Amino acid sequence: MSWTLKKKAQALLAAEEGTVQKDWGGRIAVALVYPNAYSVGMSNLGFQTIYRHLNELPDVVCERVFLPDPAEAAELARTRTAPFSLESQRPLGDFHMIGFSVTYEGDYINVLRILELAGIPLRVGDRRSHDPLVLMGGVCAFSNPEPIAPFMDFVVVGEGEELVGELIAAYREQYRDRESFLDLLTALPGVYVPERYEARYAEDGALVDVVALGGAPAVVTKRRLRDVNAFRTIAAVKTPNAEYGHMALLEVGKGCGRGCRFCLEGQVYRPVRHRSVQALSDTIKQLAAEGEKRIGLVGACVSDYPWIGELLKVVEDHGMELSISSLRADSLTDDLAASLARGGHRTLTIAPEAGTERLRRAIRKAITDEQILGACDIVRAHGIPNLKTYFMIGQPTETDEDVAAIPALARRMLERLRVLDPQGRPFGRLTLSISSFVPKPWTPFQWAPFAGAEALSRKLATIKQGVGGLATVRVLHENPREAALQALLARGDRRVGDFLEAAARLGGDWRRALREWDGDLEFHTTRARALDERLPWDHFEVGVKKAGLRREWERALAADAVPAGAA
Ligand code: SF4
Question: Which mutation among 262, 273, 301 tests ligand 1's pocket best, with the greatest number of atoms within 8 A of CB?
Fold first, then answer.
């Protein structure tokens, strides 16, 4: 055991409120792993919710594990220490189950690095009878888990609140050995046991079938929480060491009804289910009584919550400050901005996604330039000094004009932010956060090609040049090569598992792993998919019909939305 790391863990625990410490005696031990830093994992409400639910079960002890940073990983290796849980500081190998909560495909490599540091064989077929069961949940689990499937004993497909209780009951009552337990799980709706499926490929490399073996269902159906009011979704543990650790996060519902064509969340969490204003108000009142001062509302699109006005009143009546995770420019109101300003908000975020109204229509995020500029007026009028905007480049049908329109729109936004400054000085800061479009499974754009790192770099250069000289505009963006990695992991099939394994063995050096991998990056990323092609995620059912996606894809490409010469 490394004493340095032990002390670090104790310091994190000492700063927390709400940590659950349970005795292990006779209990089912579950390690809940967030495959990224503590500060990121502790800001994730889904991770926190599962931690709470598991620990509410009397015969379960659930403890948290996070990705060690490079210095910590070196210390683990130097002292021959396996990654350990925060609460009891037991090594991962001591647990009955290791559950990874994965919300971002880029963390797949971290999943394998953690298993490797723990001395747990990566491939399911290499595991021994005494190794813990390794499972995964989170949105990646029901988007496309195939690249990481060879390393998972089972995958929780869908919203886990109800399913975790059923899984534990099955383990408690019927676990005899690994094989028979996995047999049992194939019959549990919402559980995917990858080794019970065989992928078949044509000579040209195309995936032709995924065959269910030994009585496993041909299609795995996502579990959906029927009554969102039945479970409180609120952070269990507060910590100053997380981005949103200083406030109580509260989920207002699941899903979003807007149907933007690039958006995974807008598709896979359907139908939209809002928590009742009564249930949320009760929770807010209880939090206020416990002395809570700040509340953060979380959801796919919080400003669309139908009773947002009532909720704001409850928050304010209890003297609490408000924070909000996501807004749409067309549902930002004066009341909401005023409430956020009173809550001390210094930055407001909106996501126009594209520089032109035409492209916004094509991606079905049909907000107008005037609505975006109107949002600038509201932000400025309420004294919120910073506006952050999200744009996405490389989307289907995008032209050079669409890209050039982003800095042009930024200049107009800046005018509106500036014009209202009483002293005529530049007011606050406008941030353009530019992400690269990655075609996601289960969206109408799932057939579209990824633009490629070089094309994306050129688009970024256009934007940076376009805002050059504007001191109050800041451009943030990811490296387009990282977007290419994300495209590979979001769209790949099981063969991509070889790349993941190589990247983990190289200590996370995915660039080198890509060079050494004998797979074809372009095949999985920049290739447009034919409408009748078998997709790696076709043996799942998440409640989104392919015919509807196809209709939406064809509408996006329809002549009235697409200028001549667009891809
Ligand atoms: S409004 Fe936001 S959350 Fe809703 S579908 Fe569009 S991008 Fe997704």
Answer: 301
